[in-house]
Specification:
Structural class: mainly alpha
Helix content: over 70%
Low-confidence stretches: 344-364
Number of helices: 14
Radius of gyration: 21 Å
Number of domains: 1
Strand order of the largest sheet: 1-2
């Protein structure tokens, strides 16, 4: 087994950071889609919800592509074992993301209620499936997987859906709904923002309970010792911080401090991912059974020269990507409201409701 080098550890942490950025940004995208059917009283409200994330959702999804590419380049064995063991789960996520992406593009192409309702349903279903699967997947990585002595997982999709993973998946979906509701409370105005605030309270309460259950369950399960593992208190502190941040966000939401609450839900996602990766370290594919050999970062890493090249490329281009994405959010920072025509009476064909409500950027 190769020794853990500084670059191995650095890239393990960077991949964790990329996944954290993805779930922070895509988390409120998922959340908006999850709460949209419940807080959107008509097609105009639902269009405003989609327009709130329309300019940024596809940019947010780039993070998962970068995370996957970085995993492939830095830890090819980890990538291979993930895509062989989690193949059906990842295929399910891919189909969900495709359905979700297509819904953004096609919903406004035909002005028929059934057509729009179909694509709204596709958007909701794709977001729900993706949130549940991502939550269950990272819960499994924190909990550990039953592996063969060679470090392979053969349990298939059903084996990933044990009770603690389901609890983690539901916790992730509720946390994303909480995150997305707060984003809508900040991004929209009027009655829609008020309903988003009430949705934040309901989803936030569910998220806190499910996160606490998942954390307690994982903390109570023993894991085979891997040389170089971090002390168990480190992931526990991250987990407690994640639950505590969600609690703070819930209190702030109740006090109508949506901006601070949104920051607290983001901190909860960051802390939760910190707990997952600190619990995994130094394994990239951790085992839950003593007889198996989990794959460590030393075993899974690419050659040292490959990691050096990746580090230089990341140092050059990541600031550019971050600056561009920050500029995008700044450009589309305006609060969205219902069109004046919709507030005064029935909306006629050609009022621009489906294309762009007042102050809104088109979703596609």
């Amino acid at each position: 087994m190769k020794n853990f080098s500084e670059l191995n550890t650095t890239w393990f942490a960077l991949i964790g950071l990329l996944w954290t950025g993805y779930l922070f940004l895509e988390g409120f995208d998922f959340g908006v889609s999850l709460v949209m059917p419940f807080i959107g009283r008509d097609s105009i409200d639902r269009r405003i919800c989609l327009n709130a994330i329309g300019p940024v959702w596809d940019g947010n999804e780039v993070w998962v592509i970068v995370a996957g590419g970085a995993t492939f380049a830095a830890f090819p064995l980890w990538y291979a074992r993930l895509f062989s063991g989690f193949y059906l789960a990842l295929f399910l996520v891919l189909m969900a993301l495709i359905a979700r992406g297509v819904s953004f593009e096609l919903r406004g192409k035909v002005e028929r209620p059934r057509w729009q309702a179909f694509w709204d349903g596709a958007n909701f279903t794709g977001s729900l499936v993706a949130a549940l699967v991502w939550g269950a997947a990272f819960t499994n990585l924190a909990h550990g997987l039953p592996l063969s002595p060679g470090g392979r997982y053969y349990g298939g999709l059903i084996g990933l859906l044990h009770p603690v993973a389901l609890a983690g998946g539901l916790a992730a979906a509720c946390l994303f709904a909480f995150h997305g509701s707060l984003f809508l409370a900040l991004k929209t105005g009027g009655a829609l923002a008020e309903r988003a605030g009430r949705s934040a309270l309901a989803s936030g309460a569910a998220a806190v309970v499910l996160m606490a259950v998942t954390l307690s369950w994982i903390a109570a399960t023993g894991r085979p010792y891997v040389p170089g593992s971090l002390p168990g208190v480190v992931p526990l502190v991250f987990g407690i911080a994640a639950v505590a941040s969600a609690c703070v966000a819930l209190v702030l939401a109740a006090l109508h401090r949506a901006g601070y609450a949104f920051g607290a839900t983001g901190l909860s996602i960051i802390a939760a991912m910190g707990g997952v990766f600190s619990r995994m370290f130094p394994s990239v594919f951790p085992a839950s059974n003593v007889a198996a050999n989990g794959i460590t970062i030393g075993t899974a890493a690419s050659l040292h020269n490959t990691l050096i090249v990746m580090t230089v490329v990341a140092a050059v281009f990541m600031p550019v990507v971050l600056a561009y994405q920050g500029w995008t959010y700044w450009v589309f920072r305006k609060r969205l409201t219902r069109p004046q025509a919709a507030r005064e009476g029935p909306v006629r064909r050609g009022d621009g409701v489906e294309g762009s409500p007042a102050g809104a950027a088109p979703a596609n």
